[in-house]
Amino acid sequence: MTTMDQIHRIRMLYYEQDKNLTEIAAIMNLDWRTVRKYVDCNDFNTAPPTIQEETHQSKLDPFKPLIDGWLSDDLKAPRKQRHTAKRIHKRLREETDGYDCSYRLLATYVSEKKEELKLSKKEGYLPLVHFPGEAQADFGTADFYENGKLHQKAKYLVMSFPSSNAGYLQLNYGENMECLLEGLVAMFTHIGGVPTEIWFDNTRTIVTDIIKGGGRGVTERFQRFSEHYRFKPVFMNPDAGWEKGNVENKVGYLRHNELVPVPKFTTLSDKNRELLSDCDRDMEREHYDNDQGLFISELFQKDKEALIPLPPIPFNTSLYTTARTDKYGKFTLDKGKHRYSSSPGFSEDTVRLELTSSEVIVMDSSMKEIVRHKRLYGDESESMDWIPYLKYIARKPRSLKNSGIYDMMPSSMQLYMDSCENSEKGKILKVLSDLTERTGFLSAVNTVDEAVRLQANDPDSLQSLYRRLYADVPLLPPLTSQDGIPKQNVIPFRNDLPDLDHILRKEGATDA
User: Fold this and answer.
1) Would you give the end-to-end CA distance of the chain in angstroms?
2) d(CA 463, CA 457)
3) Quick one: which of 238, 282, 321, 272 has its CA closest to 155?
4) 3-class state of residue 181 by DSSP
5) What is the rounded distance in angstroms from the CA atom of residue 23 to the CA atom of residue 9?
6) At what angle do helices 21-28 and 32-40 cross, to 10 degrees?
7) What domains, with CATH codes, occur in the chain?
8) Strands 264-265 and 134-146
9) Which long-range contacts (CB under 8 A, 24 or more apart) does 253-261 make?
10) Maximum Cα–Cα distance for the chain, whole Å?
11) How far apart are CA 125 and CA 236, in angstroms?
12) Strands, DSSP E only, in 68-178?
């Protein structure tokens, strides 16, 4: 199996050092077809998780600890006196009992293990001149209102081009990997290409390890992203933000010019598209350090000419993971800080998750959606979707008090359910589920509060009260008698059934 480090080196040798496929195959000790596969690859997405059958144990497993020990000892030995796969194969046949693995199986494992044990010798550097097509990226902090809700100390991603002083920003709820990747993809798409290299801080979102000598260990997900779009990530020295001063200045400039006063908008996605256009218009001004009086937009054309073309397949920026639910069917993310509901049918179970910057999509083992939440940030602690819970218990109304769902209900709803007849509880829970699906759980609670006040504890009354509260059905005044309205013709009759039958047949009055 070819590792991401090997893939990265193959592409670096081809795209940066102009090596041909044969040369790379010799350097990497790989088949030239494998080299061609990864040179031509334009999709580094990982497939969404699928239901996998239980894997069988490898015949090599009992011997792996011994092999690992020999290879670890090789780190202390001269390079010319280290084990080859052939030497290990021979030693295992001579020195162990029961070894009957093929050489190919062994060679594959040895190759992977050797790659894992290598120490990086790459040296980082900072160019003194910024060339067209190079970019820098950083996050800033700002407040904004979305649909009337204040997001305090939210984040915005800025990507600037030092050569031209062009820059773009995208508002985000936070600073996680999904926010970073979605923001970069949006800016790549808008400008129609990808910077040749992007400079970053040593943010924990990307960097897992700072290696002595200037190297960086990065998350596999970010490595896949950078390979997919073919840009080179460059990381600053620790505590040296001045090294990417252009984007540091751009973060402040765009805050003052695009985020003052505090933005108010309906949807974040629409606002971000608007911000990209605003940044285009902002480039219609002279560069701060240009004797020829050129506009930033004119200089930015050189940046755009140097961009790497967009890949034909977009990168899937979602994170796929799993979570374990508690007895209420709830699970937590962000080290227990944020809590989400799934369904009571998945209590003390494992659910699959797809995470974007704005949503948490909960799925079962077949990747079928259970429920969808708005992703929580900051001090928000819990997102509860009542619809699966109300629908679930509506099928088993007699077990309401023993289900745990009763204890999660607001006190007014508990009081209301206690006052209802057992025969009506299933219908009422179904009504509450429908009301929640229409306008949210709060509307169902408000309707119940009104029902408690009026002592209306049947399904029809509950729906009628909801329509009065949320469907803009006006209360009609009582009718008053008016002139011109014909009076009712009262048909008198004696308490005699034959006389009544006669009246109804003749549709007339009988003698009094």
Assistant:
1) 105
2) 11
3) 272
4) helix
5) 13
6) 110
7) 4-47+59-117 (no CATH), 134-306 (3.30.420.10), 319-385 (2.30.30), 390-470 (no CATH)
8) parallel
9) 253/167, 254/140, 254/156, 254/158, 254/167, 254/169, 254/279, 255/140, 255/142, 255/156, 257/282, 258/169, 258/282, 259/142, 259/144, 259/156
10) 129
11) 9
12) 134-146, 149-161, 166-172
Name the nearest CA neighbour of 447 among 328, 239, 459.
459
Predicted pLDDT of residue 473 = 55
Q: Which pTM value belongs to this model?
A: 0.69
pLDDT at 189: 97
- For residue 276, the model assigns a pLDDT of 97
Q: Which of 187, 211, 178, 209 is nearest to 137 (CA)?
A: 187
Query: Which residues of the chain fall short of a pLDDT of 50?
Result: 119-128, 510, 512
Structure tokens at 9: 């080196």
**Alpha-carbon separation of residue 502 from 108, 221, 491, 492, 495 (angstroms):** 103, 90, 12, 12, 13
Length in residues, the chain: 512
Contact status, residue 133 vs residue 196, Cβ threshold 8 Å:
yes
Residue 287, token pair as written in the block: 């560069």
Angle CA(18)–CA(20)–CA(23) in degrees, nearest 5? 110
